[in-house]
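[Automated response] Your request has been received and processed.

Submitted sequence:
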Amino acid sequence: MPYVDRQNRICGFLDIEEIENSGKFLRRYFILDTQQESLVWFMDNPQNLPVGADCVGSLKLTYISKVSDATKLRPKAEFCFVINAGMRKFFLQANDQQDLVDWVNALNKATKITVPKLNDGHQSSENQRSLPDVVGTRKQASYKTEIIGGVPIVTHTQHEGSDSADRAEREAMHRSHSQLPYFLGRPAQDHTVIKSGYCVKQGAVMRNWKRRYFLLEENAMSYFKSDLEKEPLRMIPLKEVHKVQECKQSDIMMRDNLFEVVTSSRTFYIQADSPEEMHSWIKAISGAIVAQRGPGRSAASRLKSDSEKL
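Generated structure:
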């Protein structure tokens, strides 16, 4: 679901058909900024990208005439809606029906007080100059501005080769992974999968943030480099978890949708893609712990009980 970040912008993941009529939808992180009058999209949440990372594309709100459900136009694309900007149509896929409705309403509301207009040369250059104000201070990059039906569309013409590995990993997030029980690339498991999906985790040593694939099972939560990996980077036994809750230091860390998993040896800081996903993870992990230990038993009391038996 789209959510409002600390800068009062509407944000969230969507799939977009960047090349018109290609039928290929790519996972992108969208930011609807009414102050800058722009809709921009990135490879991932900018908080998880290198400082100064470039956006993939942008669109001025003044050129959007209408946003609507596109189910009939693209029957094979689930939860699809379309942004009409001059003669160009941008088709996007939401994560579910409610996500679709929320984005359509937000975009229509943001463009309600604007008037679609044709572009001239002066406006085109102005649009290109204003782009850095939308995404902050960034490295130099090559852009191209195409005038399609009187609408300026700004896109990249080159990317740094060193980012290819990370980009390939992000491209693997085709749909909302948290909605899926498991991926076909992973072998069948003996344990029941309670929840799975991508989140961003803070490292223990470097304190950097990386996107990882999390898997919650009956007795443990594991995280992998990607959903295609067979061996986890780490497994956290649920019997060692003291508590899981919304992070009280989220303001200090400047991270939205942050929760923490506290164990006897370490506190894991994990960022979900939306407030709904954050609460869903907290509920799922807490439920798995209760199911394993029984109501009202903490990790400390369980360890004490086990030691007494010995």
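Summary generated for your ticket: DSSP finds six helices and 17 strands in the chain. The first helix runs from residue 97 to 110.
If you did not submit this request, please reply to this message.
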